């Protein structure tokens, strides 16, 4: 019952009070309280909910009100750092051990664990760190004192996506259930098909019959989804620039909006957005081109120095002039929680449906209308297929044809094929196609929030006009026109 404290074995948790006092939020979003209660009652929990739903709160709040320490397994450093910064700002004793943690801090954290009664409420670690004997030894000490409260796995779909190939430590996360069978596990994800869900549950060694599963819609009704068609013959840069400039002009020329912006000391040109490209070199070139056209744009990729990455990210988060648009590889994605991102553009077709939807999910986290555009060409489609084929050949050589490797390959192919079908489709609502892919039960709402619903005839016309013909693409393929280009 909302408002009433939750009780278990003589314990009482003041959930609403903690929500207000520690997290500064007025009320729970629908279902958050139920998930938190299930976690506190000691169940294994599988939470699947849309990007920006507020999944982190579902393991952070129990960690604060409950006894003991919560180990949070998170795939990316940037993701951990974001969450840690906001928890620290709320005065919570939180820590992380990763490849960049200084030795003295690492020792202090391990000492805290060694005493068996840690003061740290949440400890963020990578799957790789969980595989280390020394860390496991410390966890056993905590567990012996009955202080290991729960294991939280954030972005749990990565277990399935990455665990079977380039980050095998994800697969070793079954250690927790084997070693600490009485410690509950909560896993969270925004993007998991039913196959990925089953895989995650099986890898973590959870009993599907006993899990409390919360599978909410993946739908984000405030996002406007649109596919823009292009071909190699015609550069799509002018199309994007014209769109962005028209957005700036609309803000500047609308007297009410313009007055609002002046009052809040905001710029008409501050329309924060992210452009995703597949290659590092493109991020630099595109950001430079936008800058030369007067758009505040900065690149972001794994090859930049930490100082550059921090500067670009911080400037963008703070809405600083010159930092309005981030042109990034997928190194910039999960965990980015800037509320006023008004657009996410995919400069080419991404590698997977899941990646596409995760990245698009950075837009509109304040609930306001925002646009997600994907520039699709059949030439890029063929390049993506070729790259995937080459990557898979390499993988299979590495694993010498193991059955698991074949399965992983098949899943990747299916995901890319589904994304291609999404792009080629001019006869269905985009929201519907997305929710079908993720197996949502409920119909995804769409109020003119996609190119199909906005103008289906125009959509078809744009596709016919914008794409290269299949005959042309087939000739290109046969003549070997597309080279292999390693993804960044
Ligand atoms: N009950 C609430 N009331 C208001 N804001 C909330 C509430 N719960 C969470 N939020 C805010 O919603 C935002 C998104 O939360 P969070 O980063 O946990 O999303 P997420 O579900 O993990 O999304 P993603 O999968 O995209 O990372 C955060 O800024 C968080 O502070």
Give a structural overview.
It is a single chain. The chain contains 21 helices and 15 strands. The longest helix is centred in the last third of the chain and has 22 residues, at 378-399. It is of the alpha/beta class. It has helices at 15-21, 32-40, 56-65, 77-89, 103-114, 127-130, 133-144, 157-162, 175-179, 194-203, 237-253, 255-263, 280-292, 306-317, 353-360, 378-399, 403-424, 430-437, 451-454, 456-466, 470-478; strands at residues 6-8, 11-13, 45-48, 69-73, 94-97, 122-125, 148-153, 185-189, 212-215, 223-229, 273-276, 297-300, 325-328, 343-346, 370-376. The termini are far apart. Helix 2 packs across helix 3 (56-65) and helix 16 runs antiparallel to helix 17. Helix content is 46%, strand content 14%. Strands 5-6-4-7-8-3-9 form a 7-stranded parallel β-sheet. The chain has a 6-stranded parallel β-sheet with strand order 10-15-14-11-13-12, with helices on both faces. The mean pLDDT is 89. The protein has 2 domains: 15-215, P-loop containing nucleotide triphosphate hydrolases (Rossmann fold, 3-Layer(aba) Sandwich), CATH 3.40.50; 223-479, Rossmann fold (3-Layer(aba) Sandwich). It binds adenosine-5'-triphosphate. GO terms for molecular function: 3'-5' DNA helicase activity; ATP binding; ATP hydrolysis activity; four-way junction helicase activity; nucleic acid binding. It is found in: Nucleus. Residues 260-417 form the Helicase C-terminal domain. It comes from Cryoendolithus antarcticus. Keywords: ATP-binding, Helicase, Hydrolase, Nucleotide-binding, Nucleus.
